[in-house]
């Protein structure tokens, strides 16, 4: 995933200012953590400063200004920066109904659901894995905008070392949560970044890339959190009769 956001700093006459900049047209949650010595804000002399900020598309904001405590002494500062797509202030539309992420008339068994002991814990507690042959058409479970995608990888396996090789599509929903579709095949994305998609629209083809022990689709709804983290959210699929 390309960097979406960056931190900019300006030091002048022992005063240090920090700006946060979203380089994409999509909402992002960023965290700036600054450790200091002989620097303060107008409100506090504390040594550590943490700023959590939601940035809308291409937004640039000044978030921190530090001044020397002792103008004759040396100043020191060191920063860390984190980001994740989505809005940490999003309120999941709990009554939203999600379509199954495959074509009407098809059926694929769930091989790991909410709280699955193999890999659905922590941030991915509320994910669902559908076993399906490689190349199965994948359809959007909910309408939104495509904000991220990867499709160049061909590697996968039953070890977390393969996680970085997953192909995927991320769709930003109207409530600023994201629907994420993982383990797609190489060159298996059928949408483009920035494209608006309808529920049920073809978005790609399943595969076995990344941290994957068998061909399947991993689907979950996520909420952005500070420090570059995220958390899956409970959701419900629309009932569908099996023909």
The end-to-end span amounts to 39 Å
What is the C-level CATH assignment of the largest domain? Mainly Beta
Task: Count every beta strand, where a strand is a DSSP E run of 2 or more residues.
Answer: 22
The helicity comes to under 10%
Mean pLDDT: 92
Briefly note the CATH topology name of the largest domain. Answer: Glucose Permease (Domain IIA)
CATH architecture of the largest domain: Distorted Sandwich
How many alpha or pi helices? 0
State Rg: 21 Å
Q: Point out poorly predicted stretches.
A: none
Quick rundown:
This protein is mainly beta and 243 residues long.
Describe the structure.
The chain has 243 residues and is mainly β. The protein has no helices and 22 strands. The relative contact order is 0.18. The mean pLDDT is 92.
């Amino acid at each position: 995933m390309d960097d979406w956001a960056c931190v900019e700093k300006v030091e002048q006459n022992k005063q240090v200012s920090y700006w946060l900049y979203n380089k994409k047209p999509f909402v992002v949650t960023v965290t700036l953590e600054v450790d200091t010595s002989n620097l303060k804000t107008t409100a506090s002399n504390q040594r550590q400063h943490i700023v959590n900020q939601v940035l809308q598309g291409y937004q640039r904001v000044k978030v921190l200004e530090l001044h020397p405590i002792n103008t004759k002494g040396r100043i020191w500062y060191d920063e860390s920066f984190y980001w994740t797509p989505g809005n940490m202030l999003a309120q999941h539309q709990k009554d939203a109904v999600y379509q199954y992420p495959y074509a009407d008339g098809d059926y694929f068994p769930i091989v790991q659901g909410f709280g699955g002991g193999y890999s659905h814990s922590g941030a991915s507690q509320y994910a669902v894995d559908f076993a399906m042959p490689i190349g199965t058409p994948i359809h959007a479970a909910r309408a939104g905008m495509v904000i991220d995608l990867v499709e160049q990888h061909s590697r996968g396996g039953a070890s977390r070392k393969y996680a970085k090789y997953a192909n995927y599509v991320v769709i930003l929903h109207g409530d600023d949560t994201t629907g994420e579709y993982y383990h797609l095949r190489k060159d298996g994305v059928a949408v483009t970044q920035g494209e608006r998609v309808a529920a049920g629209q073809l978005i790609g083809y399943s595969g076995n890339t990344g941290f994957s022990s068998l061909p399947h689709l991993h689907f979950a709804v996520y909420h952005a959190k500070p420090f570059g983290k995220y958390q899956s959210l409970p959701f419900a699929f629309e009932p569908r009769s099996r023909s």
